[in-house]
Design goal:
The protein is mostly helical and 112 residues long. It is built from 6 helices and no strands. The protein is 71% helix and 0% strand.
Length: 112
């Protein structure tokens, strides 16, 4: 069974579709992304390396999964093909950030 199918079954089995309006999924996605950020908050580079390579890595993986699940649901419910949408965005970014101006540079495209 594909991951999306598993997520949809989980949601359907609990009758949660009624709560999963696009606004609520987007809010939940942002909350879960914030919980992922919290794993890294106030940590030094050494502490982050220890975290991602240590026994507490599971917490990061769980937060990443929560973010992914809400994104899968939002894309499904809005009929967004995430693969195609990402490909289109890469093309837009290729124009905004030409290699000749942006390689090794973290500036926003408006500053290049």
């Amino acid at each position: 069974m594909k991951v999306l199918d598993q997520i949809l079954k989980f949601r359907s089995d609990r009758d949660w579709e009624q709560f999963h309006k696009p606004k609520d999924l987007a809010i939940s996605l942002a909350i879960e992304a914030s919980e992922l950020l919290e794993c890294f908050q106030w940590k030094t580079d050494d502490e982050v390396n220890a975290l991602i390579n240590g026994e507490n890595r599971k917490k990061i993986e769980e937060e990443v999964a929560d973010v992914a699940m809400y994104l899968y649901l939002l894309c499904h419910d809005l009929n967004i093909d995430i693969e195609e949408t990402v490909k289109e965005k890469i093309e837009i970014n290729n124009k905004k950030y030409p290699i000749s101006k942006s390689k090794g540079n973290a500036k926003k495209y408006t500053e290049l």
